[in-house]
Structure formats: structure tokens, C-alpha cells
Amino acid sequence: MLFSPACSFVLLFLLNIVDSGRILSKINRRFRDLQAQRHKEFFLTLVASKSNSLQHVKEGWIHQPLDHFNRQNVKTFTQRFFVNEAYWQRPDGPVFLFIGGEGPIYNFDVLAGHHVDMAKEHRALLLSVEHRFYGDSINPDGLKTENLADLSSQQALADLAAFHQYISQSFNLSSRNTWISFGGSYSGSLSAWFRGKFPNLVYGAVASSAPVKAKLDFAEYSNVVGLGLMNEAVGGSEKCLAKVREAFVLVEAMLLDGNFTKVAGDFGCCQTPKSPDDQMELMQNLADIIMGSVQYNEEGVLMSIKELCGVMTKTSHNATQEAEMEAYNRLVKLSQMYHSNSDESCLDISHEKTVKELKDVSHKNRRRAERQWTYQTCTEFGFCTTHTHTQIITQISLLLYIKPSFLLLL
After folding, report:
1. In terms of CB atoms within 10 Å, which end of the chain has fewer, N or C?
2. Cβ distance 110 to 80 under 8 Å?
3. pLDDT at 50
4. ∠ CA 48-52-58, rounded to 5°
5. If DSSP codes are grouped into helix, strand and coil, which group holds residue 393?
């Protein structure tokens, strides 16, 4: 096996399963950075305590076929994985496999988390394997659209089956070693699909927050956000959701009336949203502030649901004309609160810039995933975040959201 000591201390937090605007992507990265700091502290604690677990973590690579279903294609790529033998009871202990999703894996995927706690209890061998075309496991031919044809969940499941065989041979495993797979979001779906497709290889699967059915109209995500805003247990209310809805209706009314300069000034936009594409970017990024607050709530990344709803429902004693725009002004306030905690001088709503970034086929930044994930959602899953039942955004925005983003990759 090609092993080297693991030295990274950043824990990957799985990217949001749905397509998002730039703000939610930045909030995701902010959360990962916060997690990285926490896990750095945990790492230093392990070092200070001279924990043996670090000594048992190793990094490895396996050569995988680029196309498992075409024997005439002999091209391969190297797939990255981590192993932690610290808790394993040889030779018959179980195997816990943490499946990577749409991003890189790190050694903390076999050092921290609920699956690691369970591994200690059940004396399991811990594994984590990176998804093809993400992190360091990228096709050497790059990320050009024609080369992305081998990026699919079916190929990824075949990778897992081949990885199972490779590890079984390397560690002399047998049928006595029970395999359990773990994952969350997209990797949670892979965990469930792996168990369903190869029940002879995996005894059980943990699939946290996993959308196991491909859906073009993925309104469920927005519905959950709406339910979060109404949940009184976390500081939400029906009034809060109503005010958020009203605010977006007012923003769209402003745009339909041609008040582009005022909207740009109110929300601190880098560009004036005159084109429908830039208006789409604006609406998506404003929605991201709401979605990010619900998604991470009290993690310290953004404002909590309680704080958000406090802003949106605060009683105002303004004049009638001002009161009519109260919800709009509250959304402006939320945007200002977001910017006060960011290093951005203005809100970038250039759709042209988004397209340019998606067309970038380089893969020097291993954390990058937007291009690959856009390809997967457009060719396999859909997962378009529309807004129907407990909608946050109105139907005018919906018409802007459902443009065929696959064309952005070309």
C-alpha cells in the first residue's frame, strides 16, 4: 500500500447538497474555517496528550479505472483515502467506512465525529475515501466538460466496490469483518446506494440528511428552511416567515418597477441589477442569507434563527408609507449584518462572473467543487431549489432560478 503519515488537521464539512449563490458558498467556507479552527485545537490537544490515535492514521492511494464499465478504456486515476487502525480489534473487528462527498477528505474524517466515537466502542477499523474528481482525486486530464463524462454516482459506487476489495486484500479481511458505511448529504446518499447496490459488501449504512431520490424540483430544501423560520423552539414564528416572504415580494416589486439603482444602493451591490441574470444572482444571494442562518443556526457562523426573526419581526412605529416597506428594510438590515461580519466591500451579483468561475477548468485549488457539482446536478440529480409550498421567494424568482445551468460549463 502507498501510505504516508497524515499531517492535515482540517475537517471537511460537507458542502450543501443544493445549488446555491455565492453568499451561501462563502457561509459554507466560513463554517469549514470555524470547524478547522476547532479541530486544530483538538489536534493540538491530541499532540499534547501524546495520543496514540494520530500515530495510527495513514494516508493511502489506490489506482481506479476512469471508466469501470468500459474495459477498452484503460485510463486510471489515483484515489485518496485515510486509514485509522487505533481502535481496531484484529482480525475480526468491524470496518467503518466514511464516504467522501463533493469536496476533499482530511485525516480528521477518521479522527473525529460520531462514527469515530462508535468505532471506539465497537473496536472498528476506520476508513475514509475521497470521491472521484474532488479534492486530490481528480482525473489527470482535468475538468474540461468532455473529461467530466466519468464523473457520476454510478462510477463512484463502482469505486467503492473496488476500494472494498482493495482494503479487504490489504488487511486480510474476511466475511467476519462487518462493513458499515457512513455519509451525510450527497455522501449519505452514496452510503445508502452502496448498501442497496452491494448488500454483499456492506451490512449497514448510515445516511444522514441524504436525498436518496433525484429530483429536478427540489423544493423540500426551501420548505425545511421555511419550517425552521416558523419553529418557535429555536426562536422562529409564523410571523417571521410571513415577513421574510413579504420582504422578497417587495424586492421583486422594486426590480419590476425598474428601481435598480435604489436596490443596488440599499443592498450594497457591486453592480446595478439591470439584467434578469444579475437580478437572479441578487435574489439568490439574499435568499442565501436566510438559508445560511437556518442551516447553521447557532454554530456561530452567521446570525441564529432567533436573531434573524428578531430583526424581521421587530415592531416599528414608522409612518404608514415607511411601514409598507418595513419588511424590505428589515431584509436590508439583515444584509448589512451579513456584510459587517464579512471581508466583502460590496455584494457581487455579476452573473457573468459566476459563469466565468464555472468555466474555469483548472484544479489547483483542491477545495474547489462548484464546477464538478454543477455537472453532477445537471446530468444526474437536478436538485434545483425551487420554492412552492412554504416558499420564501415568489414565483417571479422561480422563473429566474430554473435556467439550464449546465450550459454554464461549456
Report:
1. C
2. no
3. 59
4. 110
5. coil
CA distance 263 to 255: 8
> What is the maximum alpha-carbon separation in the chain?
77
List pLDDT tens digits, range 165-188: 999 999 999 999 999 999 998 999
* Residue 16: per-residue pLDDT: 40
Considering only CA atoms, which of 386, 67, 69 is closest in space to residue 216? 386
pLDDT at residue 113, rounded to an integer:
87
CA angle (340, 345, 349) in 5-degree steps: 105
Q: What is the DSSP string of 33-92?
A: HHHHHHHHHHHHHHHHTT-STGGGEEEEEEEEES-TT-TT---EEEEEEEEE-TT--TTT
Taking each helix axis as running N to C, give the angle between helix 238-256 and helix 326-340, from 0 to 180 degrees, rounded to the nearest 10: 100
- The per-residue pLDDT for 24 is 62
Cell of 20: 446555491
Q: How many CA atoms lie within 13 A of 56 on its CB side?
A: 16
Percent of the chain clearing pLDDT 90 (strictly above)? 53
- How far CA 162 is from CA of 107, 155, 193, 208, in Å, comes to 21, 10, 15, 24
b or e along 192-219 (b: 16 or more beta carbons within 10 Å of the residue's beta carbon)?
bbbbebbeebbeebbbeebbeeeeeebb
Cβ atoms of 162 and 62 within 8 Å: the answer is: yes
**Cis peptide bond N-terminal to 91, omega within 30:** yes
Whole-number pLDDT of residue 292: 86
- For 274, residues 6+ apart whose C-beta sits below 8 A from its C-beta are 260
Question: What is residue 343's DSSP assignment?
Answer: S
